Structures are given as structure tokens and as C-alpha cells.
């Protein structure tokens, strides 16, 4: 009789243990699915709120929009004023490792062009960044920029064309022009005529939001 009770008890214990393990696995799966995904913004001063009150730039506005829409994403802003494509490339591996983002918005290149960097070097940096993002299983979003034609029409055109070329060849999402709808409005620029006032940033967010929203649903 005692042996029978023991075997029954062992059986019940094993069944209970299996149930606990199964519940734990289900809980972990549910937690993984419900945990917020990260959007990493790798940008320059236009994304780092240069000359603006904290919380008024387009990245902060993106955070607010995502929260309002309850889309399950958080934003990590790794933008630095004056950042170049080479600087972004050097910082990217550590950011990918620590943040493990789902989407990486690459808003760089403007400082490369303003400093007259060789476009081949910039292109190589962008290719390496896009490849690193893809290798980490994240989705890259490339943000295209333009520079004034006074830097030379040929150079300006080649610089702007670089973004579309990379997006097509490497099959990545593209924001056609970051400053669409604001670049031609002098009243939206700060005194330096390079950085935008807070009033321009809602439009900048809208320019990014179109391509980004499609990625959020994947």
C-alpha cells in the first residue's frame, strides 16, 4: 500500500512539476512578446536637439507618438551634435550590442558633406553601418539629407543621390528627404541657418513617420 501511494505521489509531483515548467515557458514567451522593442536613433545635431529645449525635438516627439499609439516601442536616442558617418560607424557595434534594437534610424551624413568629406569614404561608412544593422537582425531606416548648392552642384547632387543609391542596392527603407517641407522656409531655421527651430520638428517627424510606420508593423 505504501509503495502504491509513493508511486502515485511521485506521479502527481511529476505532473505538477511539468505544469509549473509549462506555465513558466508560456510566461517567458508572453513576456518576450509584450516587452517593448527598441528604436535606435543614430544621428547628428538635427536629432540631438541642438539649440532646442529638451523634449521638443523630433525624436522626443516620436517617443510621445509611439506612447500615444501604444505600439510597444521605446526609443533610444544615440545622436550627437557634429557626428559624422565615421563616428556613427565606430559607435554602432556597442550600441547594437547593448540596446539590441528592432529598428535603427540612421540620420547621418550632413556633417560629412558640410566638411567636404570624400563621398566614397562616406558611402563605405554607410554600407558598413547598414550591413552591421542587418547582421544584428534589426531593420535599418536611412534618412536622406541635402546640402546647399553653394557647396558645388555636382558634389551636392552626388551627396543627395548617395542615399537613394544605397537604399536601392542594399534594399533598405528610405526617408526621401529629412527636411521636406521645412528646408525652404527660412523662418524655421535658427540663427546659424543650419539647425531647425522647434516649430520645424513636427514636420521632420512626419517625414520620418511615413516609412517608419510600415516598419513598425512588421
From TrEMBL:
Record-annotated SGNH hydrolase-type esterase domain positions: 41-201
* Gene3D superfamilies reported in the protein's UniProt record: SGNH hydrolase
Return the Pfam families for the record.
Lipase_GDSL_2
Task: Give the superkingdom in one word.
Answer: Bacteria
Report the InterPro entries cross-referenced here: Ester_Hydrolysis_Enzymes, SGNH_hydro, SGNH_hydro_sf
Q: Name one GO molecular function term.
A: phosphatidylcholine lysophospholipase activity
Q: What is this protein called?
A: Arylesterase
Question: What is the source species?
Answer: Undibacterium nitidum
Q: What is the lineage of its organism?
A: Bacteria, Pseudomonadati, Pseudomonadota, Betaproteobacteria, Burkholderiales
